[in-house]
């Protein structure tokens, strides 16, 4: 057993001549929160629809909870909850009626499940309200409640925080964390709001124009986006000689315009400025930098486009 609850192998999806997904291989481990990163139109919703069984790949194979093949996947998807694109509701049905409708549709005995979902998602106070009167945030909460009705092992969420206000985003994020930590639900969620994904995901998959550019864990990403110190110097070559001799363990790079960037520095900034002063090398400027998830994704896209 490889520990993956969801995996795709060379999954490709075309719509006529349009290539929506191009030989995508994702690996989602049990118990993780997997953040699918990409611009609008990158292929995130398409991939989620394939995993949910709402669409079928043109080529490639999907494996969920160790099962593959259309019939086995049909059965195992009963252990998944999905909220893909905008949740669909009957505008004249109340929140409570909507949850009851989906219980009947999915063959799930109520037994207090509807009440539990309304309280868990924070929609209980709106239980008698018609769906057509709900705000976007309330609709997202109801959509999550529907996805959770069958006590799923896996949740697929497409842009779940899209359109939420800042307090709504924080509440939704905390709710997903709780589901992941307390109920051990594996969550695959997509978003183009990268700063928010950075607050919650354990693993990232970067999609661009249907191509999976990279999969990377939070720890690996943190290391790659670690703080760095950038110095603009009068003598770059001379400084690098002294840097290697004095601090041989430092990882650095020489940049254009007489600059040196030290990645994940192991000592305070004063140590590097002192090193320059001791050898009569003038420092024109020194600054501490840190890459964001957005920066990392943009650089990844640039490298991908250059292939």
Describe the protein.
- β1 and β2 form a beta hairpin.
- The chain folds into two domains: 4-218, 3-Layer(aba) Sandwich (Rossmann fold); 226-290, Alpha-Beta Plaits (2-Layer Sandwich).
- It has helices spanning 44-52, 70-76, 95-106, 113-121, 136-147, 166-182, 194-197, 218-224, 236-246, 269-278, 293-305; strands at residues 4-15, 18-24, 27-29, 33-37, 59-64, 80-83, 154-158, 186-191, 203-208, 211-217, 228-233, 251-255, 259-263, 283-289.
- The mean pLDDT is 91.
- α4 crosses α5.
- With 307 residues, it is α/β, with parallel strands linked by helices.
- It is 36% helix and 27% strand.
- The strands form three sheets. It has a six-stranded mixed sheet, sandwiched between helices. Strands 1, 2, 3 and 5 form a four-stranded antiparallel sheet that branches. Strands 12-13-11-14 form a four-stranded antiparallel sheet, covered by helices on one side.
- The chain is elongated, with a radius of gyration of 24 Å.
- It has eleven helices and 14 strands.
Descriptive key words:
36% helix, Alpha-Beta Plaits, alpha/beta, 2 domains, six-stranded mixed beta sheet, Rossmann fold, 11 helices, 307 residues, 14 strands
Integer tally of domains:
2
Reported by name, the CATH topology of the largest domain is Rossmann fold
CATH superfamily of the largest domain: P-loop containing nucleotide triphosphate hydrolases
Q: Which strand order do you get reading across the main beta sheet?
A: 6-7-8-4-9-10
Q: Which structural class fits the helix and strand makeup?
A: alpha/beta
Percent helix among the residues?
A: 25-40%
Shape: elongated
Return the string of H and E elements. Answer: EEEEHEHEHHHEHEHEEHEHEEHEH
- Output the radius of gyration: 24 Å
Largest sheet: 6 strands, mixed
Strand segment tally: 14
For the terminal residues, how far apart are their CA atoms?
Answer: 34 Å
Low-confidence stretches: none
Give the number of helices: 11
